[in-house]
# Entry
Amino acid sequence: MSNTNSIAGFSGSGTTRNTFPSQVIATTVETALLINTDTSTTTAFVVVPTGGQILGAQTKLDVNANAAITTRGGREYGLPSGESNDQFSSASWDGRPFKVRIAGVGTAGHNGAQTLIFNLYQGTSATLGSDKAIATTGAAFAIAQSTVDVAFNFMIEATLLWDPTSGVLSGAYTANIAGGTTSQIKTPTVVTNVVASVTASGLSFLASVTLGNAASSTVTIR
# Structure
């Protein structure tokens, strides 16, 4: 039993490293969501920390932290604002539940009716077919429009459990998506695509979006 929460993640949109772009999508092919690098973009993976640290410029989840700090040193007493000692090892996740959440906003391009589906995957590959789908916003969410783009937002949150002995990743998830005057919620649902043979390094997660038609739309992870 514990009353301590530990949070790790990425936050912020923009054009610099470790921020999320306003991703333009104009295809009906399922598309992985991206994060910025120094020179371009790459698939956005959230990896359960196992003792290492994320180095480089990063927007802190703690709004009181100094986002300009790129290393853990530099002060005589204590660590820089918003920084803490590494708290995790692979044993930190042995039989202990944890949450993975993705949320964002966007604009659905107009071209008659548009639909949206967001999926959460476990895996380490930028090729979605090589990963395991573990959560979804559900059936295609319809945004009825013909002459105007419609803003929307979405969220998926999975509560997961893993241990190195069984190698099984399982759990449940909820999700919601809303735009215009309609919304859709996914009530707590079991992860039916139980993932087996998962090692500590496989506790890696990514997300995707699928459009119903190819009208140019945008998605920005928050």
